[in-house]
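Reviewers of the previous submission asked for a worked example of the structure-prediction workflow described in the proposal, so we include one complete record here. The input consisted solely of the amino acid sequence. No template or homolog information was supplied to the procedure at any stage.
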Amino acid sequence: MARSPEQQSHIGLFDKLAHRVLFGSNGLEKKQRSIFDRYPELQKIPEDRWPQNVFIIPDGNGRWAQAKKLAVQAGHEKGSEVIVQAFNDLSELSDQIPYVGAWGLSMDNLRRPPEEVDYLMDLFYKTLKRLEPDLIKRGDRFIHIGRKDIFNKYPHVGKRIEEVEKETRENAGQVIYIAVGFSGEDQELRTAQKLAEAVKVNPSLEITTELLHSLRDGEGLIPPADLVIRTSGEKRLSGLGWIAEGSELYFDNTLFPSFTTKNFVRALVDFSKRDRRFGARPQIV
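From that input alone, the workflow returned the following structure tokens.
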């Protein structure tokens, strides 16, 4: 049926309004706009002011759920969604930030009630499954840091980690790493044990910092984080060990399930304004 000029004019106006809502004024879907377009303040960060490695301590899942009168599992579920979104958003900055990590479970967390640990392990498994397609699509690499033997009780989790690490091992993109069953003190112990075994095999082995780094989780590929972000207002590192060596710390009061890309951008901008001297005195001009 032919439309009258009035109908055509009305439909044309409706189409234009719908197009603006769905795609924005530039004709591109909003979700496809780059992070630099969405957050222009990132464009002002000088090339040498970006953190090479960002590590996230996602804290506050339980308090978020409690505030909403939900089971604590709901907070962890929402936190899982946020961490996946965070990795996806920060992947757009892979040229500026080659390494992005997050703390999943510390050694202390493993002392929680068995049913809660079981749940968190299953959630980590699901989170990794959600991450895997995007890691492969982007050519990113995944690395787990922490004890492997904790997965003896959770073979499906250990197998999934092994498969994703193997499948992405040759990828040259951003390195995504998650700490599960990790603590700084336990890492020191395991590194010392590996070193003792190496010296036992080769008594003349020269002990260097490069050797020690290679014996750490991640085989020395992951450098200490330049920026550690902790959410929920807690101001502590909780035994990160070498990961937080020389790190700049950024504390945000937001409970992690409510953390957004905007919060990350604020942290990156804040980092870019800091004067990192690493023990040296500032230059007097």
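The chain has one domain: 50-272. We consider this example representative of the routine output the project will generate in years two and three.
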